[in-house]
Amino acid sequence: MRFNYNRLKAERVAKGFTVQDMANVLGVTKGTYSKKENGKLPVTVDDFVVISNKLEIPIDHINIFFTLNVSKMATNTI
């Protein structure tokens, strides 16, 4: 599984939050949050809990932030 950073940004924008809003909720600088959202710094489990709460993502919808890594060979059927 891979974390979908594009979805993180899309959800933030859709909810009307700025990068600064998210930085404030995490207690980090705007630049640090931006790096997390762009995949240059890791989003920790603790970060993710705070972010998903701020975005009001129900626990049963958390999977929207993850994509499966499926190799091309695995998708070929005979």
UniProtKB/TrEMBL annotation:
SMART domains: HTH_XRE (SM00530). GO terms for molecular function: DNA binding. Residues 8-62 form the HTH cro/C1-type domain. Pfam families: HTH_3 (PF01381). This is XRE family transcriptional regulator. It comes from Ureibacillus yapensis.
